[in-house]
Amino acid sequence: MGADALIVGDVLMFRKDACISEILEETYHYEQNLNGLNNDKDIILQSILNEIDAKEYLIANAKKYKIPRKKWN
């Protein structure tokens, strides 16, 4: 649906023009799924919590990966 990066089940998909923040975020979501993060929550709450956690990861690593502020705001 127009996404440059996404995860479907255990498959990561990236368009050739996906930026580093999109790749890092989807890879992080993949690891969250492998580790069962928030699996004890209903799917909507799980998704929200995992998005927050992934955003915090991007912010914490923005300098390391040279992620522009506009990509994690």
Report on the architecture of this protein.
It is a single chain. With 73 residues, this protein is mainly alpha-helical. 58% of the residues lie in helices and 11% in strands. The protein has 4 helices and 2 strands, in the order E-E-H-H-H-H. The chain has helices at 20-35, 43-60, 62-65, 69-72, and strands at residues 5-8, 11-14. A two-stranded antiparallel sheet has the order 1-2. Strand 1 and strand 2 form a beta hairpin. Helix 1 packs across helix 2 (43-60). The chain is globular, with a radius of gyration of 12 Å. The model has no long low-confidence stretch (mean pLDDT 91).
Gist?
The protein has helices at residues 20-35, 43-60, 62-65, 69-72; strands at 5-8, 11-14.
Highlighted features:
single chain; 58% helix
Structural class: mainly alpha
Topology, number of strands: 2
Q: What does the overall shape look like?
A: globular
Beta-strand percent range: 5-15%
What number is the mean pLDDT?
91
Estimate the helix proportion, in percent.
55-70%
- The neighbouring-strand order within the major sheet is 1-2
Tell me the number of helical segments per DSSP (H or I, 4 or more residues long): 4
Radius of gyration: 12 Å
Spans with pLDDT under 50 lasting ≥5 residues? none
Write the H/E string, N to C: EEHHHH
Question: What's the N-to-C terminus distance?
Answer: 22 Å
Largest sheet: 2 strands, antiparallel
Write the layout of secondary structure elements.
Blueprint: E1 5-8, E2 11-14, H1 20-35, H2 43-60, H3 62-65, H4 69-72
